[in-house]
Amino acid sequence: MTLCSSSARAARRDRRTVAAGVIALTSLAWLYTVHLAWQMNSMAGSVGMGAPRSWDALELMLLVLMWIIMMVAMMMPSASPMLLLYAKTLRARSATSPVPQRSALFVLGYLVVWAGFSIVAAVMQWGLHAAALLSPMMTSTQTLLGGGLLIGAGVYQWVPLKHSCLRRCRSPLGFLLTEWREGAFGAFVMGLRHGLFCVGCCWALMALLFVTGVMNLVWVAAIAVFVLIEKIAPGGQWIARASGVLLVGYGLLLLAPATF
């Protein structure tokens, strides 16, 4: 009885610790994102602002940092069910497991993947800026680009790869059963694997930020909420498909004036 009670207390402590870490990390990321958006909206000449010009290496590094922190803010809430179940399973497998440390390594692996995505997104933004395809508010200035991104994201909401990745993200238990690895390095690798599935699921939705505005906080929050709904709501895969129809329809609507 005492052993069971002690194990239950340890599991509750793990859950509180991991949840507190996720909340703290997400909150800090959102605070920085809000601060950066305010800064960009109020100061000409900030990263991505002003007339098209060549950016230097420092500005590109700041752009990458911006994307990384924004991805932390947007993706950590939807990753929390996986992380909490991982911590619970780790404790159940061994009473002496260093759950907070292993959970931190899992998160690190997860965020390494999103950091890779952020580098790609920042380079794309750099190229679009150099080609004068983004406005000072970092939204698409070309109807063809905006409509094309919307249609592409909408179509991707129906492709098998999207739903294969979404299925893994929606089933933390299934992920643990098929992807479990022991040890500290195993925790990191599991984070990498889960991050790959999340990027495979959500990258096209993140590309919509080039349509709505990379630092448009309303749309940043809206996409983050939608990603969470896709992953945890009943019928999330059908919600994804329905959103795909809407995105394609909106993209065609944008392109219609340019066609006729």
Question: Describe it for me?
Answer:
The chain has helices spanning 2-42, 57-93, 99-130, 143-156, 160-170, 172-179, 183-207, 209-212, 217-232, 236-259. With 260 residues, the protein is mostly helical. Helix 4 (143-156) packs antiparallel against helix 10 (236-259). It is globular and about 65 Å long.
Could you give the topology of this structure?
Elements: H1 2-42, H2 57-93, H3 99-130, H4 143-156, H5 160-170, H6 172-179, H7 183-207, H8 209-212, H9 217-232, H10 236-259
Helix pairs in contact: 1-2, 2-3, 2-9, 3-7, 4-10, 5-7, 9-10
Outline of the structure:
The protein is built from 10 helices and no strands. With 260 residues, it is mostly helical.
Total helical segments:
10
Order of helices and strands: HHHHHHHHHH
Cα Rg: 20 Å
- Which structural class should the secondary elements be placed in? mainly alpha
Spatial gap, N to C terminus: 76 Å
Strand percentage lies at under 5%
For the largest beta-sheet, the strand count, sense and barrel status come to:
none
Please tally the β strands and state the result.
0
Report the uncertain regions: 44-51
Mean pLDDT rating:
88
Overall geometry comes to globular
Helix content: over 70%
Supply the key terms.
260 residues, mainly alpha, 10 helices, 0% strand
